[in-house]
């Protein structure tokens, strides 16, 4: 970690201490913020958010520099060798990583077939994704085209950051996933009496393959400039577009013509008090935490998800001992936490409001994401012929649903009035 990042983190810690001091003073005097204090709080909140963005940008820049050095070393034979490569054309054997990059760039320039399919290795891949950021695990995997594209998918979707279970399949036919709706129970049995049967209750969740698409246009000059990181640009644009589209449905999708969202399937753990316009209190968040079944709330995949405006409210909350329940992550790769669990920003979560489900908490590995096949790219030189732009079309098929409805994920809903 560079000195600049360390300086930014120190400044972030200082701003947070100032915010705590401001809130503590108002709390001790049993009053709300004055107009001047509210202005100071808002300014410091904005600075805290800006520092978060600068820290992330600096860490990403450091990682890109490291990736470039690694690529240069591989090019000159100073390490690397044949990559385990996830990207591929068609379904044949994996080419070496350098060959993949060369094939991809040649295809972008119009050499070869009209389509290029980027797929993970193996016919079926079932895994649990961790955060795609460099400091939270991204450094441990090769950075070929598929990995870079999926990293951007994850960065724009909180449900993918949270550790959702990913099922990669070659084809897109509907698959049935068992869904747990109730667990077995036991009871005291007196001598000589029969033991009652109690079986878990299961249902099935059909996971299909809804098609998401995005058009990306690139100038001919950009394609011909060999000094441009064209693979990185295309991966970023496609990953963000597809990640944003799928991410919205993964939170609040209805399941009709689109995936079922985790908020759609999760049950309400806590309902807020009336007369507070749907706002949550520190007690509400503590109750929500303990409304999730113990094994799930202890899971490494247990996280909080809320919108930026809700996080701003959570920063002000204290427990009964006067301690803030929101704790900033002050080290590289350590996220902000509430009650020891990471807080993820998700713009598709509802803002605080009457009857609004503004907070979700639980084990997000119980949300299954199905990705069918790879991400298919197609190139057209004719779509924007009069502007000399080359058009790329990115297509992804995906579905998702929460598979454990016994209390793995719960939501907070604002009071009704």
In short:
With 417 residues, this protein is an alpha+beta fold. The chain has eleven helices and 15 strands. The strands form three sheets. A seven-stranded mixed sheet has the order 7-15-12-8-11-10-9. Strands 1, 2, 3, 6, 13 and 14 form a six-stranded mixed sheet that branches. A two-stranded antiparallel ribbon has the order 4-5.
Description:
- This protein has 417 residues and is of the alpha+beta class.
- Among the domains are: 80 residues; 162 residues, no CATH class.
- The protein is built from 11 helices and 15 strands.
- Strands 7-15-12-8-11-10-9 form a 7-stranded mixed β-sheet. Strands 1, 2, 3, 6, 13 and 14 form a 6-stranded mixed β-sheet that branches. It has a two-stranded antiparallel sheet with strand order 4-5.
- α1 runs antiparallel to α2 and α4 runs parallel beside α7.
- The longest helix has 41 residues.
- The protein is globular and about 70 Å long.
Strand order of the largest sheet: 7-15-12-8-11-10-9
Helices and strands, in N-to-C order?
HHHEEHHEEEEHHHEHHEHEEEEEEE
Structural class: alpha+beta
- The percent range for strand residues is 15-25%
Rg from Cα: 24 Å
Mean pLDDT: 77
Largest sheet: 7 strands, mixed
Q: Would you count the extended β strands for me? A: 15
Distance between the termini: 49 Å
Which overall shape is indicated by the principal axes computed on the Cα atoms?
A: globular
Which spans of ≥5 residues are poorly predicted at pLDDT below 50?
Answer: 75-96, 122-143
Amount of helix: 25-40%
Instruction: Supply the number of helical segments.
Output: 11
């Amino acid at each position: 970690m560079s000195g600049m990042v360390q300086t930014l983190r120190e400044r972030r810690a200082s701003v947070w201490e100032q915010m705590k001091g401001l809130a503590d003073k108002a709390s001790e005097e049993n009053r709300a913020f004055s107009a001047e204090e509210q202005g100071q709080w808002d300014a410091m909140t904005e600075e805290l958010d800006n520092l978060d963005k600068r820290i992330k940008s600096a860490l990403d820049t450091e990682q890109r520099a490291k990736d470039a050095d690694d690529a240069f070393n591989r090019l000159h034979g100073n390490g690397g060798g044949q990559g385990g490569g996830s990207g591929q054309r068609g379904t044949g054997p994996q080419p070496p990583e350098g060959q993949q990059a060369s094939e991809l760039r040649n295809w972008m320039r119009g050499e070869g077939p009209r389509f290029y399919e980027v797929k993970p290795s193996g016919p079926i891949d079932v895994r649990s994704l961790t955060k795609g950021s460099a400091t939270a695990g991204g450094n441990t995997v090769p950075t070929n085209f598929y990995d870079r594209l999926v990293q951007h998918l994850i960065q724009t979707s909180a449900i993918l950051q949270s550790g959702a279970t990913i099922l990669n399949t070659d084809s897109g036919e509907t698959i049935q996933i068992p869904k747990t709706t109730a667990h077995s129970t036991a009871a005291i049995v007196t001598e000589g009496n029969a033991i009652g049967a109690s079986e878990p209750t299961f249902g099935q969740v059909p996971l299909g393959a809804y098609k998401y698409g995005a058009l990306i246009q690139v100038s001919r000059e950009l394609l011909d400039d060999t000094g441009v990181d064209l693979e990185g640009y295309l991966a970023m644009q496609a990953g963000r577009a597809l990640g944003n589209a799928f991410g919205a449905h993964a939170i609040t999708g209805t399941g009709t013509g689109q995936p079922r969202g985790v908020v759609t399937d999760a049950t309400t753990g806590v309902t807020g008090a009336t007369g507070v316009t749907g706002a949550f209190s520190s007690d509400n968040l503590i109750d929500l935490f303990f409304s999730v079944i113990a094994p799930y709330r202890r899971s490494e995949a247990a996280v909080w998800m809320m919108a930026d405006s809700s996080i701003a409210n959570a920063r002000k909350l204290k427990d009964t001992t006067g301690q803030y329940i929101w704790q900033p992550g002050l080290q590289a790769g350590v996220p902000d936490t509430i009650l020891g669990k990471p807080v993820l920003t998700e713009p598709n979560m509802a803002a605080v409001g009457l009857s609004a489900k503004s907070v979700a908490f639980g084990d997000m590995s119980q949300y299954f994401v199905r990705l069918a096949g790879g991400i298919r790219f197609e190139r057209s030189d004719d779509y924007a012929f009069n502007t000399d732009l080359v058009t790329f079309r990115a297509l992804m098929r995906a579905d998702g649903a929460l598979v454990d409805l016994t209390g793995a994920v719960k939501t907070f809903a604002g009071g009704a009035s």
